[in-house]
Amino acid sequence: MTINSPDAPHATLRLAADANASRKAGAILAGGGLVAFPTETVYGLGADATDAKAIARLYATKGRPLFNPLIAHVDTVEKALALGKFSQQARRLAEAFWPGPLTLVVPAAPDCPVCELARAGLPSLAIRVPDHPVARAVLAAAGKPIAAPSANRSGHVSPTNPAHVLADLDGLLDALVEAGPTQIGVESTIVACLDEEVRLLRPGGVPREALARVLGHPLSAPRTDGTKPLAPGRLASHYAPRHPVRLDATAVNPGEACLAFGTPLPPGADPALTLNLSESGSLVEAAANLYRHLRALDALPVTGIAAMGIPDAALGEAIRDRLLRAAAPRETAQENFT
Ligand code: AMP
Ligand code: MG
To answer: What's the CA-to-centroid distance between 152 and ligand 2, angstroms?
Structure first.
């Protein structure tokens, strides 16, 4: 299999997930190629995290700024622990939540093979063991840490099914392993364990309450060094749909689509222009539907998207975080760093 250069678009090889596909995908990754594959959160765009050339191509393909570091994915907890220096608290979280939708930022191990470019030059490293059989089979076959940010162009809504991946990146990838919609639907929770504090950098698939239960205390707020956020790339406008998004809407204006949560629908909602994240008010179901519904509403000829309020607890924190970024002013659209 030849690896295609980024400037020569070609048909993306589509692989239905099976043992053969995982082996092939792993071999392409190990050879420096780009392969999109499912995880339990969203579809990831994989590249060998130890290969600066492959990582440079990944950044170029996504249009992602080089100062936004990537998460290294491996298939076992043992391999993950070897990549960094884990405090007692970090180890406790790793043991409780891996494999799963938790990313731990820890000091990189002295012999950490992840390239500088993937780490954006930082002395720390973000690590995750995904909980998806296809992801883990692909990672096992690759045999190296794999950087796998969401498989979308930077600034676009993250992909939760193979069609979303192709809509953004068809012809720019070497292969896509297809395995239906992802289960969780929002990205991993990112937690930094760089000193004695455990800090939440990004709400995600593991609710902060669950982390606090394991730690026996609440998480600290993210530290900032003046103006810079501790988690590079986490700036206001992420996950940007084309249409303006209005948060915590209690009524829908004429011409607006409605992103509903629970029932009844708010006054003014047109059922033909409404998608419900979860009629029963389930936050788990809402997270799984979030990006698909945002994409579908964004494709409608409407003036904006009125998003109903979501409770700020459990997975609701991650959903609210993503909606807040979807609603951020478009003046900062060039600062979309997904
Ligand atoms: P994603 O864009 O979903 O792949 O998530 C990557 C995010 O992880 C980045 O945008 C950062 O916010 C965070 N991240 C990765 N590496 C580090 C690191 N060394 N220190 C702090 N945050 C990191
Ligand atoms: Mg992303």
So the answer is: 7
Q: How far is the CA of 149 from the centre of ligand 1 (A)?
A: 9
Cα separation, 102 vs 247, whole angstroms: 27
Quick check: helix, strand or coil at residue 206?
Answer: coil
Distance CA 88, CA 81 (A): 12
Same structural domain, 39 and 165: yes
Query: Is residue 253 a part of any domain in this protein?
Result: yes
Cα separation, 283 vs 262, in Å, equals 10
Residue 323 phi, psi (nearest 5):
-65, -40
Residue 47 tokens, joined: 């590249």
The enclosing domain of 44 has a CATH number of 3.90.870.10
Nearest-CA residue for atom 3 of ligand 1: 149
Residue 156 Cα to ligand 2 middle (Å):
8
Domain that holds residue 252: 245-332
Is there a domain that residue 1 lies in?
no
pTM for the structure as a whole? 0.90
By CB atoms closer than 10 A (0-12, 13-18, 19+), residue 3 is: middle
Query: Which residue, judged by its Cα, is nearest atom 4 of ligand 1?
Result: 149
Residue 240, domain member (yes or no): no
The ligand 1 site (C-beta within 6 Å) comprises 68-71, 105, 119, 122, 124-126, 149-150, 187, 190, 201, 230-234, 338
Separation of 250 CA from ligand 1 center, angstroms? 34
Q: What is the pLDDT of residues 160-196, one digit of tens each?
A: 999 999 999 999 999 999 999 999 999 999 999 999 8
Q: How far apart are alpha carbons 139 and 129 in whole angstroms? A: 9
Closest CA to 256 of 334, 75, 265, 236: 265
Q: Residue 189 is encoded by which pair of tokens? A: 């929770």
Asked whether residue 233 is domain-assigned, the answer is no
State the Cα torsion 109-204-156-23 to the nearest 10°: 60
Question: pLDDT by residue (tens digit) across 106-158?
Answer: 999 999 999 999 999 999 999 999 999 999 999 999 999 999 999 999 988 99
User: How many structural domains comprise the chain?
Assistant: 2
**Ligand located closest to 101 CA:** 1
